């Protein structure tokens, strides 16, 4: 993690707020109060400080009745606070591979890497049903820094593995084919068709892998 940003943010409660918001599309002060068991004014002051320093912004969330509710969400500045296994050297290495072996060489290397990773996961996967395998895969992806969880709620779009972070974001931005390779890997491990949908707004990153149980 970026030590300078951690020092600037300072208090543990502020880091907890950022970690809570990372897994959501936004939370109100009242929702943060309920989650963190702190006073309204304490949470509000931390949010105002984080907003002032550029880590949070706000939006109005429509309600079924009454006025829209103000919620806080992360900004792009928070991205460096979360694990990123990839780095500039990886990009430089793939660039060198392209210069030496040709335009399509980096994608061939990535294809091979994901194919090998998928095969390794498939060999270790636990569970007889799609749901059991999805729970296992979500735990594996979470341990790798993807902030993943298995969801079955129809209100959230049905069965899915939802990821709130990509530790290889710089690679994903440079080589969009990775999205397709991730989808193929999920299909191989789960043994069923998978649809990948990626969402980005401000500091929000969500990648949902939908499938049928």
Structure description:
The chain has 213 residues and is an alpha+beta fold. The chain has 2 domains: 3-81, Arc Repressor Mutant, subunit A (Orthogonal Bundle), CATH 1.10.10; 88-210, Muramoyl-pentapeptide Carboxypeptidase, domain 2. Helix content is 52%, strand content 16%. It is built from 9 helices and 6 strands. Strands 3-4-6-5 form a 4-stranded antiparallel β-sheet. Strands 1-2 form a two-stranded antiparallel sheet. Helix 3 packs across helix 4 and helix 6 (105-124) runs parallel beside helix 9. It is globular, with a radius of gyration of 19 Å.
Name the average pLDDT. Answer: 92
**End-to-end C-alpha gap:** 37 Å
User: What is the number of beta strands?
Assistant: 6
Q: Helix and strand string, N-terminal first?
A: HHHHEEHHHEEHHEE
What is the spatial order of strands in the main beta sheet?
3-4-6-5
Specify the CATH architecture of the largest domain: 2-Layer Sandwich
Using only C-alpha atoms, the radius of gyration works out to 19 Å
Net shape: globular
Question: Low-confidence segments, ≥5 residues, pLDDT <50?
Answer: none
Largest sheet: 4 strands, antiparallel
Q: Give me the secondary-structure category.
A: alpha+beta
Share of residues in strands: 15-25%
CATH topology of the largest domain: Muramoyl-pentapeptide Carboxypeptidase, domain 2
Helical content band: 40-55%
CATH class of the largest domain: Alpha Beta
The total count of helices amounts to 9
């Amino acid at each position: 993690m970026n030590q300078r940003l951690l020092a600037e943010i300072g208090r543990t409660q502020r880091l907890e707020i950022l970690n809570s918001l990372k897994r959501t599309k936004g939370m109100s002060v009242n929702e943060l109060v309920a989650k963190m068991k702190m006073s309204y004014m304490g949470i509000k002051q931390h949010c105002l400080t984080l907003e002032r320093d550029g880590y949070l912004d706000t939006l109005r969330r429509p309600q079924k009745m009454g006025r829209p509710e103000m919620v806080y969400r992360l900004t792009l500045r928070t991205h460096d606070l979360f694990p990123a296994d990839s780095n500039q050297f990886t990009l430089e290495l793939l660039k060198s591979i392209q210069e030496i072996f040709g335009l399509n060489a980096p994608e061939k290397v990535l294809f091979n890497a994901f194919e090998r990773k998928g095969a390794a996961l498939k060999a270790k996967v636990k569970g007889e049903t799609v749901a059991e395998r999805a729970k296992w895969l979500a735990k594996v992806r979470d341990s790798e820094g993807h902030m993943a969880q298995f969801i079955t709620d129809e209100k959230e779009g049905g069965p899915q593995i939802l990821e709130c972070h990509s530790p290889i974001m710089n690679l994903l931005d440079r080589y969009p084919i990775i999205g397709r390779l991730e989808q193929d890997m999920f299909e191989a491990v789960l043994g069923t068709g998978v649809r990948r949908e990626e969402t980005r707004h401000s500091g929000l990153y969500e990648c949902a892998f939908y499938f049928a149980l």
